Amino acid sequence: MSPISVFRIATRAVRPSGFIRAAQLPRPRVQAPVALAIARPSFSTSAKRFGGHHEDETYEEFSARFEKEFDGVQDVFELQRNLNNCFAYDLVPSVEVLTAALKAARRVNDYPTAVRIFEGVKAKVETQEQYKQYLEALEGLRQELGVALREELYPEEA
Questions:
Q1: Separation of alpha carbons 145 and 115, rounded Å
Q2: Is the dihedral of CA 46, 139, 123, 66 positive or negative?
Q3: What is the DSSP letter of 18?
Q4: Nearest CA to 119 among 109, 129, 131?
Q5: Which domains can be identified in the chain, with CATH numbers?
Q6: Angle, helix 128-145 to helix 111-124, in steps of 10 degrees
């Protein structure tokens, strides 16, 4: 039974059965939501897939899936939704995924999101050295697309 069905059943008003209809009790305007099962955190090295299946997915499968999703992006909303989904996992996206995301940002002509991709990487990595490695790997594409870093745009905040 889906969680929505459980919610509908739980919030349905109690209706008396029989020939004589009892007076309806006033329903509260705000009903308390039904507590749904919350997924427990997983401490594995694979990412959980929250689609139709709840299987473990390897880092390579994760990267291939998001590369494909970014290659199919046609508007800004879809780009930002995919970025939110990608960065929601407890891992840093691969260089290939970030390349596909930057190309998608260029395709939909969204410069601010391209700058934010690098901010997201900086927030996700554990050390400054890892961030520098990502910057080195993406330097050519960054120069080709003309994407500046936040540190370059606002040097006084860095």
A1: 11
A2: negative
A3: S
A4: 131
A5: 57-151 (1.25.40.40)
A6: 160
Give the separation between CA 48 and CA 116, rounded to whole angstroms: 24
Distance separating alpha carbons of residues 123 and 128, to the nearest angstrom: 10
pLDDT digit string (tens) for the chain, length 158 residues: 666 665 555 556 555 555 555 555 555 555 545 444 444 444 445 555 455 544 688 999 999 999 999 999 999 999 999 999 999 998 999 999 999 999 999 999 999 999 999 999 999 999 999 999 999 999 999 999 999 999 999 998 86
Q: Output the six-digit token pair for 33.
A: 């939501």
Q: Which residues contact 7 (CB under 8 A, 6 or more apart)?
A: 33, 34, 36
> CA nearest 83: which of 57, 122, 113, 50?
113
B/e letters for 48-75, b = 16+ CB within 10 Å, e = fewer, are beeeeeeeebeeeebbebbbebbeebee
Residue 141 CB contacts under 8 Å (≥ 6 apart), including other chains:
99, 102, 103
